[in-house]
Amino acid sequence: MPFLETADRVSIHYEEEGKGFPLVLVHGWAMSGKVWAFQKPLAERFRLITVDLRGHGESSTAAGYAFADFAADLVALFDRMGLARAGLMGWSMGAQVALEAISLLGDRVAALMLVAGTPKFTGDDGWPYGLPATEARGLALRLKRDYDITLGAFFRRMFVEGELANDQYQRIVREIVIPRRNPDPAAVQAALATLAEGDHRPLLPAIVSPTLVMHGDRDAICPPDAGRYLAREIPGARLFSLEGVGHAPFLSRPEAFNREISRFLAEVIGRD
To answer: Which of 66, 95, 151, 231 could form a disulfide linkage to 213, CB 3.0–4.6 angstroms apart?
Structure first.
């Protein structure tokens, strides 16, 4: 089980599979790299590298959980793996981690993929495409009262009615939910506070990496308009919308998701 140790002595777990053009996958809040289980077919064409963010999965806990901390860990991973050019894909909170990291990684990110992402998780008067700040505070309180039940309810909210057949849901539970290790409760609370405070809108116009934004049109956690904003504000970005899909299109529509990722990366590789 491979790990790297960061400058601030955090042990970061990662896994790799396949050969070819590298693709680094970054999970969302309160999840782990195991969430990408249905993307394993991509390893037939690409070198898949999944990472557990600090305090999540098999990675150790840490003193800090700011976006800058998560981004520094990604840079350390790129360094450890010798990645001069790679694709970087982030889902949900992982999309914001990727946005934070890209200014540090520069042209080492040959392709950027933002899945069910947002530049700002919570809404305010100038940002109508986020969840109310009161909702993040309520989630934090529920986590304190009943951690496991609250995480379970949050996971179920990722999917909309009719999105998953029963056998699909059972497969997700069997292959992703059950095998995963619940993240450290303090890390989850700290990462939620980071989400509630983060704002990556100022970074978007400076992104030069070819960018694909993928978003379900019924996402109840990061609204579809947030994805449209990303695609509009990142120069040259492309939007791929999935109909009837919520917050985790790579789980509910893995075949269509993987095809689009393969197509996009093939285009990027062909430009080099």
So the answer is: 231
Nearest to 57 by CA among 97, 29, 99: 29
Position 177 scores a pLDDT of: 84
Q: Which superfamily does CATH assign the domain made up of 3-271 to?
A: Alpha/Beta hydrolase fold, catalytic domain (3.40.50.1820)
Which residue stretches of the chain have pLDDT < 50? Answer: none
Cα distances (Å, whole numbers) of residue 57 to 50, 109, 180, 228: 11, 24, 7, 30
* CA distances from residue 89 to 8, 28, 102, 170, 262 in whole angstroms, order as listed: 24, 11, 11, 26, 12
Going from N- to C-terminal start, the domains of the chain cover 3-271
CB-based contacts of 81-85 (< 8 A; 24+ apart in sequence): 81/14, 81/16, 81/22, 81/49, 83/22, 83/24, 83/108, 84/108, 85/22, 85/110, 85/272
Q: Which tokens go with 36?
A: 């990408």
Using CA atoms, how far residue 243 sits from 94, 103, 216, in Å, is 22, 32, 6
Where do we find the tokens 């520094």?
72
Q: What is the rounded distance in angstroms from the CA atom of residue 245 to the CA atom of residue 163?
A: 6
**pLDDT score for 180:** 77
Contact 99, 203 (CB under 8 A): yes
List pLDDT tens digits, range 153-174: 999 999 999 999 999 999 998 9
Contacts of 165 (CB under 8 A, 6+ apart): none
Give the pLDDT confidence of 165-206 residue by residue, as tens digits: 999 999 998 988 888 778 999 999 999 999 999 999 999 999
Query: What pLDDT is recorded for position 272?
Result: 61
Integer CA distances (angstroms), 186 to 76, 116, 190, 192, in order: 23, 24, 6, 10
